[in-house]
Structure formats: C-alpha cells, structure tokens
Amino acid sequence: MKNTRTNAIPASWRGMLDDPRRAAAHRSYVDEWEKKINSFVQIDPRPGNGEGALAGVPYGVKDNIAVKGLGLSCGSKILEGFISPYTATAVERLEATGARVYGKCNLDEFGMGSSCENSVHGASSNPWDPARVPGGSSGGSAAAVAAGLVPFALGSDTGGSVRQPASFCGVYGLKPTYGAVSRYGLVAYASSLESIGILAGDVDTCRQVFDSIKGEDPKDQTSVPWEDRSGESSSRRIAVLEDLSDLSPGVDAVYRKSLEGFREIGWEIVPVRLKTLDYVVPAYYTIATAEASANLARYTGIRYGYRAEGEDHADMVRNTRSEGFGHEVKLRILLGTYVLRSGFQDQYYGRAQRIRTLIGDEFSKVFQGAEMLLMPTFPVAAFPHGESGMDAFQQKLADKFTAAANLAGIPGLSIPAGMDGNVPVGMQLLAPAFCEERLFSAAREFLSVYEPARCPGFKEPS
Amino acid sequence: MSKYQSFIGLEIHIHLLTASKVFCDCASRFGDEPNTNVCPVCMGYPGVLPALNEEAMFMSYLVGKALNCTPAESAIFDRKNYFYPDMTKNYQISQFHSPVGTGGWFDIDVEGQVKRVRIHDIHLEEDAGKMIHSASGSLLDYNRAGTALLEIVTEPDLTTGEDAEAFLQQFRSLVRYLGVCDGNMEEGSLRCDGNISVNLTGKGLGTKTEIKNVNSSKFLRLALNHEIRRQKKLLERGEKVVQETRLWDEASARTESMRSKESAHDYRYFPEPDLPPFRPDEAFLSRVDGAMTELPLARRTRFVEELGLKAVQAELLTEEKSTADYFEAVVALGSEPQNAAAWITGDVQKYLKRREEEIASSSLSPERLATLIRLVDENRINRNGAREVLEAVLEEDRDPESIVAERGLEQEDNSEELAALVDKIAAENPQAVEQLKNGDMKPIGFFVGQIMRASGGKADPQAVQALIRDRFGL
C-alpha cells in the first residue's frame, strides 16, 4: 500500500473552502457521513483571511472550545442557545495560518466520558463501524477526522479525551505538555489536568498544527514559552511496561507487535514498572472532580444558557442545574464537592496531590533511562454502543494509561498501531515535558513497520 | 481589674486604586453605566481564564510592608467556593494558604497612647458585582465584579469601640498615604467588619459575633460598644452569646441578628489551578521598598519632636499626605515651622474650605504661601492685608508680590507721616487725649483704628500703637 500518511495536509485540502465548487462537493460527502456518525453538532464554515500555510483548510473544533459567533454547548443542555462572544487563543492562532473553522464537533458533556454517547446532541459513532462508539470525550473530533470530513480537529484531553478516541478511530491524537498550548477559550473541566489537543489523519499534520498553536499566551498564565527539549536522540531506548494485565487480547497483541516493531527499527526495549499506575485513576478522579465542582458552579441560568422556571432565585438555580446537567456531570460535581469538604481535604484532595507528585517522579525516573515510554492507549478497542459496551465505571478504570500523563503534565501521542477485528487500535508514546518532537519523529519512523489504513468509505477531497 | 474583658478584631476590605481589574483589562471604575466595564473574563464566561494584574500585587505588597508583615515568597491564590448571584463564577479567587503578607502589626494612637495591633494576614481577592433590587425584580451590575480587593485581618487586640474607630481612621490615612486606596467609606472603597467577644477577665476569647458592613468609623464605634454592653448583659444573666452575624441598625442604634452559624459556608478552599504562584523577584521587591513612604504616625511624631509643633497641629497636618507634604515644602522654602503650621491649619484651611478646594490643587503653591508668610514676617504687610492677599491668590491665581504691589497693601513705616496723623487726630479729639492723660487706656484702640483708616490700612498697627504710647508718654 502506498504510504499516504507521511506528508502533511494533502494539497487537495488547501484552498478548498475558498473554492465554492469544491466546498459544495465536499459538503455532500460530509452530509452523507454525518447521517451515520453524527460527528458535528454545528457546521458553519467561518470566513478566512485567505493567506498562510493552511489557507482555506477546514478543521473541526470540539464544542468546548470557543469560536466567536458559534455555539459553545459543551454537549450540555445547560449551555443551550449560548453563542460564544470570543475566540480561543488556539483557534486565533490557526486563523493566522489561514485555516478555517468548519464546524463544532460533538463530545461527552463537558468533556466527561469515554464514549461520546453522553451528549445533549446524541451519540456519535465510529466511522469504522457505526455500531461502535468513537471514544470520548473528543469522539466527534476523532470521528470527523477518521471519516475524512476534516484533515484535523482540535480536541481537549483531561484524562485521555484526545488519545483514547484517536485510538478508537485510527487517527493520531496529541495531548501536549501542560502549558505548551494556551487553554484560553477551552471550557474548563479540570484546569490543572487538561490541554487542548490535536486529532489528525497523519503525523505531520499533527506536528504542523501543534507548531501553529503552541507557545505562551498572556491570557493563560499557566502557559509557558515554547522551548524544545527533545535534544539529539542518541540513546534510542524505549521503555515498555513489564507486566501488563487487564488488556483485551486484541489490544495485547497489538502492544506486543508494536514493541517488536520498535525493536525492528533499531530501538532498544527497556522493560520498566510503574508502581504508581494503580493509583492513577483514584488520584485523577479526586483532582478532576474537585476542580470540576468549582469550574461548573458558574452555570446557573442567570446570565446565559438554559434557564428553568423557579419560585425564587435559589429555586430557579436549583431547577436549572437539575434539568440542565446530565447524570455524569452531576455525579462528578457531587464527588468533587465531597472530596473538598471541610475537614476531609487532606484525606482526599491532599493525598491525591501527593500521589500526583509521586507519579511525576516515577515518570522522571523512567525517562532517565529511556527516551520514551510505550503504553497501550486504552485496554480495549472501540466497544459497542449502549449496554452491551462498557459501563461507566469500567470506562473510568480504563483511564489509567492515559490519565497518568495528565497527572504528570507530560506529552502523549496516540498512534494507529494495529487492528482488532474491524476496528483500529492505538498505542501511545509518552515523553518528558516539551519533548513533543521525539514523539512525532518516533511516530514517523513507526510508519515503516505499520502503515495504517483508512476507514471503509474514506475519500480524500478532490 | 474589671470583671469582663472584650476582644475586637477587624476585617477591612479596601478597593485598590489599580487602573484595571485584578484578573482582566477592564477599567476598575465605579459609577459608570451598569455593565459597561465588563468582558468575558470578569463575567466568568465559559472558557475564560484570569490573568493576574501585577499592579494589584504591587499595591498589596506595599500595604504588607507598611503593616510590617512578612511578605510571601510565593503568594498563592485559592478558590473560595460559594454561590451568590453577583459572583460570576460562583467561586471567588482569593488567598487562603499563602497570602501576600502575614504576621505584621500596626501602631495606632489612641488618645495620646500608642497601641500596637497585630495583623494576622493581608490577602488579595476579587470583588463581586452589585445587586439592585427593584419592583420588577433584581438587577445585576457587574462593573465592580473582578475589581481588586485587599483584605486586612487583625488579631483581636482592640478592646473598645474607640480603639476600633481610631484604628479605622488611622488605617484609612495610611492607605491614602500609600496611594493604594481613596479610603472612601460612603462609596464602599473601604469596608469594615468587626468581630467581637466578651469574656470573664483572664478566660481568653469568648464566643464572638460579627458586625458586618458598617459604613463609617463612628458607627463602628457605636456598634461595637453596643455589642460589648449586650454581650456583658447576656453573660451577667448567665445566658450564652450565640455565634452569629449582626448588622448595625442606625435608626434604633442597636445591632440585630442577620444570620447564625448554622448557615455558615463550607468554602472548600483549594489552590486556584489557573494562576501560578506569584513569586516576587528582587526588582519587584525593591520597587516596593522605593514606593514606601514615611507613615502618618511617624510623621506626626517627627513634626512634634523635631519641628516643635503642637500635637493637635501635627495631627491635622499629617492626616493627609498631601497636606503634610505641602507643609514641609513651605518649611523648606524658609518659613518657620510653627508659623507655617499656624497659617496652614488656620487661615489657609478656612479659605480653602469656603472655596471647597484642596490645598495641593489650589493656586496657593508652597512658594506663594512662603512668600506671603515672609511678607508678614518682614512687616511689609499686616495680618489683614495678608488675608486679603491670600484670598486674591486663590481667586486670581497670581503671585502675592504682584497683588501687594497692585493693591498698594505695602505697610507704611514712614513715622513722620504717621506722627502727623497722630497729631491731627489728637487735635480733633481732645476728650480722648484727656482720657489718655488721666490713665484711661481705652482710647488707644480708637486712635489706632482712626489712623489705620486714615492710612488706608497700610499702617503697621503695632508701630502705630507704639507711636501713640510714645506721643502721650504712656
């Protein structure tokens, strides 16, 4: 098979939205797919400036990232009718390259979920097999890219929300170093963990988009000036996890094969143990829900979004929040309120923060002996919709491979690495902070041992 | 020793005089059309992030220094969670674990005694908006939301309403000296809550009540003293003080219960993940040092000890920094300190008050006042002439010298002319002369008045008097 994924954005995307004929032809392609996968919640191409490296290239934006004049639903009823009055920094930076927002992509409500079924706009589906989920919470962004509706899309990754759907849909998914990309305009779920991430059909597009959006932003004081710390790759040692249980047979097979693949292209395999891995999920959910309980307090129906009726102000707010938030969101707000309550902070939140430090330390140790770490992105491949799939609790437990990177603030790139039946399986590469270049270059190398396919029905634009 | 002891601690909020709000670029200005100084950040819109205003941090560290606090090497912001309609995010960005300053003190003068009040901490936070209740419903104005608010928390070292009143007045003077707050209590740029408990002497703190939102230092004194009496009475009767928040009711001159502890909040503080810790570097700290100024109490003491002013005058002169600066400028130009102080706290203050002007912005520059004082000292004009000149300087914005010349106010010291006048008036008033010769001194005033009139006010009254005494051998 011809290697179609090594080049950055195919020329056919360039200027596409500036050419009415091509734009219209593409629109019918999109509409056909949307009946099956429901990846967009709003399609409304924004005007472009017609200049720059990505002039006229359409892209999708997860609907928890602000674009002035477009909705910002976060997949929630509580933001019904809300139109964003401003634009996120990452989107502004892409606008400066000439790229144009094509529309807003579906997601799990406020970024909480692993299936993209938990949205007021209905579930999205996996383009490889619409009976299955596309993964979450950036499922809409991943599905849209996998189906070829857009060459890339922005997502957000709090505990794996870019990498897991990338794995399920067979595309590349980057969660950058914390602080490398401005969060200004990303609707907060868990501020200290989340980043705006990128879903792309090929690794060089991913890299190019990352180049465009990274860097310090005065509007986000947790952002930092970009400084590449990848260095010269001299050691070529890649760490792998020694004892992996809990993997589905399909994912396990792909993991072993990827490991062999890296050995084949000249990497030395260093087996390591991550003793803290078992603590990732409890620490992650404690911190994430604590922050979420504060971040979601602003949705009251008073100034924007959905408003319920009520006897008085307090009653109105209560009804608005009861009717406006979905179950998963309510669960996490309650959990977060519980772990922060007076007298119990040290027992829960404080302890989670200490675990977080230990996880970071353990990663640092691993990276002293290896350039990168290879792990599965998710223990299973894309599961079926509904009750035959994974339940919400199983989904949370399965976040341990991805959420570790969020706790440590390090970059992770999920790359297509094999198939489990008719659906793809991704593996993630992790590197020290500000070493994204290592991830891109390893992903490029890996193409010589695994050439990912496109989903059935995929067409490049003409 | 009295049977009961009272403990008062204050929580003071001041609006910092920053140009923009604490976490966004919106103007920090009140009184504008409602909801005009707002943006997605201070409105808490989805996806926005706070960006710390360094000017607010600077002013906070400056207050910390003035209050002898230990400055935080790493000032951390926390989220304080509570629901309120005029708070846009429903959490307030404040400081809890590592505030700007801790463990300081502030010396106040209470009736001539210096009293040291310990400062627990000072912390920076954002203010909420304002609710306006009308017949058709409640309206919200968010112009104030996100403005920089510095909270100063004292230890319970004050004992009476008078202490608290003095503290508040002198603290107000301090923040105005530092230029960080206009100190206007009526407009809410300085707000104060008082915590108070009464207990048997030696038993330590009792159950406290909190008095909220008192809008003048006088009401603070009245409310606290009322509360001390109320709590003593309860204890006398063997009843318990309930921990609660109370409001001062001006009309009935009493405190009234507002809410009890049962409805107290669990603020669920945790570190604000959107703001990295603020670590002042050396340049920042030396800028703070450079902005430090001599504080009111120190200046007052110096004016008394070094310049020989009376305590009352020193107090009047040092209450506002601009007045004290003005006074020192006049002294630097050669005026004798007590003389300059008398002028400024006397005639100058009187004329300015009448004209509703501030000394610093009036046309009476320190140079002009120094000139005026010199003209009097050199006997070139008399006191009445000086008052006329003072008024004219304020009115016409011109130099005293030219006003004196134009109006011919220069005193005559031509004694021959004056002697001729004395002769003339003596000739016209033989009875008065007779009285004087018989030892009745009353007509002296009459003579001086007549001569002053005849000279068109230019005569030096003292010289005239001397001349009369000389003429009639008195």
From TrEMBL, chain B:
Primary role: Allows the formation of correctly charged Asn-tRNA(Asn) or Gln-tRNA(Gln) through the transamidation of misacylated Asp-tRNA(Asn) or Glu-tRNA(Gln) in organisms which lack either or both of asparaginyl-tRNA or glutaminyl-tRNA synthetases. The reaction takes place in the presence of glutamine and ATP through an activated phospho-Asp-tRNA(Asn) or phospho-Glu-tRNA(Gln).
Encoding gene per record: gatB
Q: What is this protein called?
A: Aspartyl/glutamyl-tRNA(Asn/Gln) amidotransferase subunit B
One Gene Ontology term of the biological-process aspect is: glutaminyl-tRNAGln biosynthesis via transamidation
The record, for InterPro entries, names: Asn/Gln-tRNA_amidoTrfase_suB/E, Asn/Gln-tRNA_Trfase_suB/E_cat, Asn/Gln_amidotransferase, Asn/Gln_tRNA_amidoTrase-B-like, GatB, GatB_C_1, GatB_Yqey_C_2, Gln-tRNA_amidoTrfase_suB_CS
As its record notes, the protein acts as a catalyst of: L-glutamyl-tRNA(Gln) + L-glutamine + ATP + H2O = L-glutaminyl-tRNA(Gln) + L-glutamate + ADP + phosphate + H(+); L-aspartyl-tRNA(Asn) + L-glutamine + ATP + H2O = L-asparaginyl-tRNA(Asn) + L-glutamate + ADP + phosphate + 2 H(+)
Summary of subunit composition and partner proteins: Heterotrimer of A, B and C subunits.
List the Gene Ontology MF annotations in alphabetical order.
asparaginyl-tRNA synthase (glutamine-hydrolyzing) activity; ATP binding; glutaminyl-tRNA synthase (glutamine-hydrolyzing) activity
The record's listing under Gene3D superfamilies reads: 1.10.10.410, GatB domain, N-terminal subdomain (1.10.150.380)
Q: Which NCBIfam families match?
A: gatB, PRK05477.1-2, PRK05477.1-4
In the Enzyme Commission scheme, what number(s) does this protein have? Answer: 6.3.5.-
State the PANTHER family in the record: GLUTAMYL-TRNA GLN AMIDOTRANSFERASE SUBUNIT B MITOCHONDRIAL AND PROKARYOTIC PET112-RELATED, GLUTAMYL-TRNA(GLN) AMIDOTRANSFERASE SUBUNIT B, MITOCHONDRIAL
Record's family? Answer: Belongs to the GatB/GatE family. GatB subfamily.
Q: Which residues form the Asn/Gln amidotransferase domain?
A: 325-472
**Keyword Ligase attached:** yes
* Entry keyword Oxidoreductase: no
Q: Which UniProt keywords apply?
A: ATP-binding, Ligase, Nucleotide-binding, Protein biosynthesis
Top-level division of the source organism's lineage: Bacteria
What is the species listed in this Swiss-Prot or TrEMBL entry?
A: Marispirochaeta aestuarii
- Check the record and name the SUPFAM superfamilies matching this protein: GatB/YqeY motif, Glutamine synthetase/guanido kinase
